[in-house]
Amino acid sequence: MINAFDNIVYKNLSQVLSAIDIPAIVEKRINEYDLAELEQLILDVAGKELKAIVWLGAFLGFLMGFLPPLFT
After folding, report:
1. Does the pTM exceed 0.70?
2. Domain that holds residue 27
3. With helix as H, strand as E and coil as C, how does 31-48 read?
4. Do 70 and 52 share a structural domain?
5. pLDDT by position in tens, the chain (length 72)
6. What is the C-alpha to C-alpha distance for residues 16 and 21, in angstroms, rounded to an integer?
7. R_g of the chain, CA atoms, integer Å
């Protein structure tokens, strides 16, 4: 029964995805957002990611500066 279900899904997956039209749904949902709200959402996500990159860079810089003198 599971194999039959898998076969049906695999055979009809392209038709289902084309019928759903995901890019149009995403575009519609983005266009429904208030511009200020969308901007704040992007800045929040980007801020968190940039903080992670900065801290990772600081950690790697610390390791690169601290470890070589220990091994010479």
Report:
1. no
2. 1-32
3. HHCCHHHHHHHHHHHHHH
4. yes
5. 778 888 888 888 888 777 888 888 889 988 888 889 888 988 998 998 999 999 999 999 999 998 888 887
6. 9
7. 24
62 contact partners, CB below 8 Å, separation of at least 6: none
Question: Are both 47 and 68 inside the same structural domain?
Answer: yes
6 shares its domain with 26: yes
Q: Which residues are within 8 A (CB) of 30 and not within 5 positions of it... i.e. 6 or more apart?
A: 38
Note whether 13 and 46 are same-domain residues. no
Same domain, 27 and 40: no
Cβ–Cβ under 8 Å, residues 57 and 65? no
Q: Are residues 18 and 51 in the same domain?
A: no
